[in-house]
User: Fold these one by one.
Assistant:
Number 1:
Amino acid sequence: DAGSKSGRGALVVLEGLDRSGKSSQCARLLSYLEGQGCRAEGWRFPDRGTCVGQMISAYLANESQLDDRTIHLLFSANRWEKRALMESKLLGGTTLIVDRYSYSGVAFSAAKGLDIQWCKAPDVGLIAPDLVIYLDVQPEKAAERGGYGGERYEKIEFQKRVADHYHSLRDSTWKVVDGSLPMETVEEQLRELATNCIQECQEKPLTNLTW
Ligand code: 2DT
Ligand code: MG
C-alpha cells in the first residue's frame, strides 16, 4: 500500500519427484497467499515459453535428442534468462512460488551419472531461494498416482536415482514435507512455512546461490 515501506518478496521453491504434488500445491499456495492480500506469482522451471524452453520441451517430449551436458546447460540457461526479472519482482515486493529450480537441475542430471560438482557449477550466481520445500513421496507411491505421462525421466528406476540425489542436496533452507499425507494437510503445512518465510525475509538482502 502506498506510503508504507514494505520489504522484498520471498523466493519459495517447491521440489520433488514427478507426481509428488508440486504443481497442485503451488497453485493452492498461490491462491491462498493472494487471498491473504500478499503480492505473489507462480513460476515454474523449465519455463517452456522461451526459445530455450522450447528446445527443452522438445527434448522432454522425445522429439529431439541432446547430449546430457548440453541439455543440462540449457536447463541452467533457462533459469539465467529469467534471473533479472526474478530479481526485479522480488525487490519490488512480489513473492515467487516456483515449481522446480536448480535442485531439479542437479538431481536429474546427476541421476544420469554426470559429476555433481559439474552439475552445480552453471547455477552458481542465480538467486538463492529463501525456502525450499521438498515434497517427499516414495517413488513407488508417486508412480501409482495416476501414472506418469510419456515424458523422458518419468520412469520409476530413474526417479529412484533422482530421489537419492535430492537427498544429498538438502541444506538448511530445506523443509521436508511428507507428500503422502492428505492434500489438505500438506497444504496447511505449506501455508505456515511460506507465511513465516515471507515475514522473515522482508528485510533480508537477496543472496546468490553458492551451494
Ligand atoms: P516438469 O514435469 O515439472 O515440467 O519438469 N528437469 C527440470 C531437469 O532435468 N532439469 C531442470 O533443471 C529442471 C528445472 C524434471 C520436466 C522435467 O524436467 C526435469 C522433470
Ligand atoms: Mg513432469
Number 2:
Amino acid sequence: TAGDAVPASQRGSWTSFLKSIASFSGDLSSLTAPPFILSPTSLTEFPAYWCERPDLFAAIADAKDGEDRTLAVLNWFISTLKDQYTSRNESMGSEKKPLNPVLGELFYGNWPDKNDRGLTELLVEQVSHHPPITAYIIENKSKGLRLVGHNAQKTSFSAGSIIVKQIGHAVLTVSLPSGTKEEYLITLPRLRIDGLWYGSPYIELAETSYIIGGGHVSLIEYKGKGYFSGKSHSFKATVTPMPGMGGQGKKETVIEGTWHEKSQFVKGGSGDFHDVHAVKEQVSPIGGGEGGEMGDFETRKLWALVAKGIREGDFETASKEKSRIENEQRQRRKDEQAAGTTWELKHFAQLESDPVYERLGKVAKIVPPTEDTYVFQENWPPVA
Ligand code: CLR
C-alpha cells in the first residue's frame, strides 16, 4: 500500500512531497523532501560511476582496430550503467535525493594503477547551480584515454513516475599510437523513477542513447519489464558500420540482454558480450590542494556535517548546516552582483556549441543538432 517503505512519522511529508512534484516541473533539487529519502552524497560525486571498472576503460586503448575499439567502448559503457542507476538501491535500499551541489563545488579522485592498466584520474566541477550542471573529466594518460562530459536534468511527472530527461553528453578521445585521435560522442538515456507511491523509488532507463565514433554508430535501446525480453533493465544495442566514417566492409553487430547483469551477441558474434560480474572499484577521493589537502569547496569537506547528520539520523544538524551553506551561497551571489563580478570556474570554460557533437551527431541525425559543452582548461594549476 501507499507509503509502505516510509517511516510512519514521515508519511505525511512524503505525500506532500509527491504532491509538490506532481504539480511541478523543472528543478527537483529545490524541493524539500522528508529525511528518509535524503542521500548524504552530492551530485558532484556521480561522474565517478563512469569508471568503476577502470580495467574496462583501459581496455579501449588495447583494441586492435576501429571495430574492436567500438565494441570495447560499448562494453565499458554498458559496465557503467549498473553503478550509475542501481547502486543507491543496493547501498541505501532505494533511490535517494542527492545533495544539490553549490556553484564551484569540486571533487577529485583516482583509481590507482593495477596490472598495467595505468592510473585513471577524475576531476569534477559544478559549473552551474541554477540549473544544476556538473562537468567532469576522467583521464588515463598512460593509455591515451580522456572522457570529458557534462550533465544536467529536466524533470517532469507522468502517470505516477518522475521522468528525467538528461541534458548533456560526453566525448571520449582515444589517442592512438599512430598519432591520430579518435573521438566517440556518447549521449545519455532517459530515466523514469518508479516506486514513488510506496516510498521506495528506483530507476528504469527508457528510450535510446548513442555512441558514435570509430567508424560506427551504436544505438542503444532501453526497455523495462514487459517489453522485448520481459525483464527489467533490458537493452538492445545495434552497432552499424558507417561507410563514410571508415566503417566500410564491416558487419552489423546486435547485442541484447540486461545492463545490470548479462548480455549476449545475437548478430555478428556469438556468446556473452558483457557480464557485470567484475567487482566495482570505487574512486579514491583525493584533496585538490597542495599536499593533497581538501579545500573548502571540495564536496566531502563542504558537506561533511550535513552528510554526517543524514548518516546518523541527526536531521536537525543536517538541515541547520545545509541552510548555512545555502545562505553563504546567496550572500556570495549578492556580493558578486554588487561588485559587478561573476564566479569564475576553475577547470572548465563553456562553449556555446560543441563541434564534436555537431560533427558526430549529424551521422545519426541526433536531436538537438547542437549542444553546448564545457571545455577542460589544460592550464591548471595556473602557473604564477
Ligand atoms: C546524474 C548523472 C549520473 C546519472 C544519474 C543518476 C541518478 C539521477 C541523477 C543522474 C540526477 C538526479 C536524480 C538521480 C536520481 C534521483 C535524482 C534524477 C542523472 C532526483 C533529483 C531526486 C528525485 C527525488 C526522488 C528520489 C524522490 O551520471
Number 3:
Amino acid sequence: MKSDKIPQIRDVFSSKIGVIAAAAGSAVGLGNIWKFPYITGVYGGAAFLFVYLGFIALIGLPIMLSEFMIGRKSRSNVFGAFKNLAPNSPWKYVGLLGVAAAVMILSFYGVVAGWSIDYIVKSLTDGFASKSPDELGIMFTQFIETPGLPIFYQLLFMLMTMAIVIIGVKDGIEKYAKILMPILILIIIVLDIRAVTLDGAKEGLNFLFHPDFSKLTADGVLSALGHAFFSLSLGMGTLITYGSYIGKQNNLAKTALIVTVSDTLIAILAGIAIFPAVFAFGIEPSSGPGLVFITLPNVFQQMPGGFFFSILFFLLLTVAALTSSISILEVVGAYFREELKIKRNLATVLATVMISIVGIFCSLSMGMFKEQTLFGLNFFDLLDWISANMLLPLGGLFISLFMGWYWGRKMIEDELANGSKLSRGLISAFIFVLKFIAPGAIAIVFLNGLGVF
Ligand code: PHE
C-alpha cells in the first residue's frame, strides 16, 4: 500500500468549500435537470420519485462516503485505487468497469450538453417566440435528427471539457462553479414559481408527489437505482478519483451528506419546474429525452423576462454539464496517466478523442441510425441503459462489498477518524448497510430488472 503522504505530483483541493464545489459540481448536472424529469415522466411520476429517494438515502449516501474514503486512502485513479488497497487480487477490475462506464456516459452526455449549447443560441435569436407546444416539439425533434449541428455542438462541448481539464480544475471551473451554481438554483426557483402558478399546474404536482405504487415496474425500480448512481456520480470511481485529491482533515461524512442533499433537492426543484408545465401545456409526460427542451421554452414564453431567463438557463445548464463532464473525463484521463503512463495532456486528449468518436455515433443514432436498435434501444439509449442501469449499480455493489467485507471495521474506523467524527452507532449502521443492505438490494433490483425472477 502507498504511504499516506500525498505524492507531490497529485493535486489537492485547496479548501473544504473547494471539495464540496467540485463534488457537487460533478453530481449536479444534466442528470438532475434533463434526465431526472424525463425518466420520472417515463416511469409514471411520484412512485418512481419515492423509490429513487429511498435508494439515494439507503445506498447512495453510504457508497458516496465509501468512494471518498477509498480515494483518499489510496491517492490513486480508480484502477490504481483497488490495485493499491488490495494488491494481487481481482478487485482492480472493478476499476476497469468504472473506466468503461465513464467512456460510455460521457459519449452520450456530450451529445445532450451539445443540445443545451444549441438552445443557448436559439434563446439568443429568440427562436422560441410565438411557437406552440407542438411546434416546439417538432423543432426539437428536427434538430436532434440532423447530422450536422448537434455533432458540431457536441464536439465543441467536448473541446471545452478537454480544455478545462488541461488548464486545471482549481483555477478555472472550480472558482466559477462556486458562483454560477447558486445562480442556476435561483433561476430554477424562479421557474418553479412560474410553473406552479400556471393554469392546470396542480395535475403536474400530483403527478410528481402523489404516488401510485401499482404503476411501478421492475424496469422502473432498476432505473431508479441506476439514476441514483448516475445523479450522485457514483459507481464508476468519479468520487474515488476526486477523493484522491481530498486532504486528510476533511470531514468526508459531512461532505457526502451535503453533496447528496443538494443534488437531490436540485432534481426535485427541476421536477417542480417541469411537471406542472408539462400538464399545463398538454405535453406527454413520457415524451422522453426531449421533455425539458420542449417544456421549458413554453414556460419562458409565459413569463416576463423569458427571453433573458432562457439564455441564462441554458447557459448555466451547459456550465452545470461542464462541471460534471470534467469529472467523467478525469476518471479516464487519470487512468491513462497513472496506469498506462501516458503524459498528462496527451492522456486527456486521447480520452477526449476516443469519447467524442463514440459520441458522434450517439448523436447519429437520433436520426440517421434511428432504425439500428438492440433490445429495442438505439445506440444512445443503449449506452445510457448499460452504463446507468448495469455498470454503475455493479460498481456500487463491488464498492460496498469491498468496504464491508474486505476493509472491515478497523480500517473504516481508522479512515473515518481523520476528520469525520461519527458515533459508534452510526459507524455500525454504515458497515451493516455496506455488508448486507446495499449489496443485497442492488443484487435483487438488478436481477429483477433483468427479468431473472
Ligand atoms: N452526476 C452527473 C449528473 O447528474 C453525471 C455523472 C455520472 C457524472 C457519473 C459523473 C459520473 O449530471
